[in-house]
Amino acid sequence: MAKAKAAARKRKTAKRAPVAPVKRAVGRPRIVFTADQERQVNQLAAQNNTFEEIAAVMGVSPDWLAENYSERIKTTRLTGRSSLRRWQWQAAEAGVPALLIWLGKNELGQTDKTVTDHAGDIVIRVVREAVRPDAL
């Protein structure tokens, strides 16, 4: 029995292999978009949606979206505007200008040019009227 106690004591005092500490996740879980979600971000950006609108659809904050997808959204918006110009040209050639004029004004910053020409002299007439103090 003495041998058993000595063996047990020896096992307790024997050096054990070091155990790596377990790393626990701190903070929120990391957000990673799938390929389908990235495609959806591109579609929304091509439609010229704002960061707030895209973030609301995707379920993330606008700040996170701007931090992680800012360049992609900017380039996709430019592509969308280019497509809009191309479609505007094609539809105008097809004879459907009303919607395209509206889109051009609202999305591309196009405006109607108003020209006001005046031929002749401008006459300004000043009328002075005297009021008697006792008439008040």
Task: Describe it.
The chain has 136 residues and is mostly helical. The protein is 56% helix and 0% strand. The chain is built from 5 helices and no strands. The protein has helices spanning 2-13, 35-46, 51-58, 62-94, 97-107. Helix 4 runs antiparallel to helix 5. The longest helix is centred in the middle third of the chain and has 33 residues, at 62-94. The chain is elongated. The mean pLDDT is 80.
What tags apply to this protein structure?
136 residues, mainly alpha, elongated
Summed up, what is this model?
This protein has helices at residues 2-13, 35-46, 51-58, 62-94, 97-107. It is mostly helical. The longest helix has 33 residues, at 62-94.
The quaternary state of the protein chains shown equals: single chain
Task: Look at the helices and sheets and give the structural class.
Answer: mainly alpha
State the helix count.
Answer: 5
Order of helices and strands: HHHHH
Fold blueprint:
Blueprint (H helix, E strand, L loop, with lengths): L1 H12 L21 H12 L4 H8 L3 H33 L2 H11 L29
